[in-house]
Amino acid sequence: MNGHYDQIVVGGGVIGCSVAYQLSKRGYRVLLIEGDAIGSGASSAAAGMLGAQLEFSSDSILFQFARESRALFPELSKELKEVSGIDTGFIQKGVMKLASTEQQLIKLREIANFQRSAGESAIILSQKAVSLKERELAGDFLGGLFLPDDGQVSAPLLTKAFAKGAQENGAVLLENTPVTELLEQKNGLNGVKTTDSLFYCDQLVIATGSDSKWLPVDVSITPVKGECVSVRPDQPLIESTIYADGCYLVPKFDGRIIIGATSLPGMTDKRVRVKGVHHLLTRAQQILPALEYAQLEHFWAGIRPQTADGFPYIGKVPGKQGIYAATGHYRNGILLSPLTGIMMADLLEGKADKKYVTGFALDRKKHALV
């Protein structure tokens, strides 16, 4: 089986599927190749938080990108449901970040002040207001920050919706097909070699997450293992996503609560440790005491790709004609996936926003030193 495509996307996580969806939507002939099942890596492990405001107390290119990407979700979710038939589980009921100490409360006020200055909604809650808004929370928090425009989706369903949408647009998807070699500029084309086939393309996009073997050696990606747990209470306990020191709790549309996540840099195995589960469940129950009676449902681990500066790589691979990369999104892959797909499609058409092209370039460190 051989073929020629306008673009080949290597990597079937949420980023690769978003890129394939946007390119196929524009009428290109796209091949998406995944070495395992679609969405079987970090995309299936993510809790699906859309926390565009959660951790930013100052402006940055990443903050701007995150806000733009979050703004796409309401209409994108409807579009994907129409094209793919898959409901992404999009919910926009806000995120509440809690403070246990005066120092944490000061930090939350700093975030709120910046977010308001940027035109975003950010509400500081007193101890009483926290208890009134989420009545099942422990009563020992000094206050909180409520961000009503942040939300969540089902990460696995979003990935599947992008993939199915790409297929409906005419893209070809190959699962369980490991790429063994990149073919660079063979007869004026790029391409990939698999175990039993050759595929050629005009443009090649690498979206392989923490697996950075196809990237230049000076493009650093650190794998970070994260463990999560899901529990199922008998009745809804929280409405908003809750974020506190040591853990977060994400109430899903089907009644589950996802509790995450540990952070283990440099680890690439997906084994879940007793220590990690114990930490998450203990901290979650301190935050939400009624979890004591919830049913323990499932636990898992995912490997997230982190860059040195925390910004993703979205751009041309230096020194490689027609080869691009979209990776290194770390904890924000789900949040940033819509705009990453659009930006990559724009980049391949030569019309991407210059500030993002510069800010997320693979060789940005080199240029910063000049």
Automatic annotation (TrEMBL):
SUPFAM superfamilies per UniProt: FAD-linked reductases, C-terminal domain, FAD/NAD(P)-binding domain
GO molecular function: flavin adenine dinucleotide binding; glycine oxidase activity
Pathway involvement of the protein, from the record: Cofactor biosynthesis; thiamine diphosphate biosynthesis
Keyword Oxidoreductase: yes
Annotated GO CC locations: cytoplasm
Class of the enzyme per the UniProt entry, highest EC level: oxidoreductase
One GO BP annotation of this record: thiamine biosynthetic process
Keyword flag Oxidoreductase: yes
Coiled-coil positions: none
Reactions this protein catalyses: glycine + O2 + H2O = glyoxylate + H2O2 + NH4(+)
Domain FAD dependent oxidoreductase: 8-347
Keyword terms: Oxidoreductase, Thiamine biosynthesis
Pfam families: DAO (PF01266)
Alphabetized Gene3D superfamilies for the sequence: D-Amino Acid Oxidase, subunit A, domain 2, FAD/NAD(P)-binding domain
EC number: 1.4.3.19
Name by which UniProt lists this protein: glycine oxidase
Organism listed in the record: Gracilibacillus ureilyticus
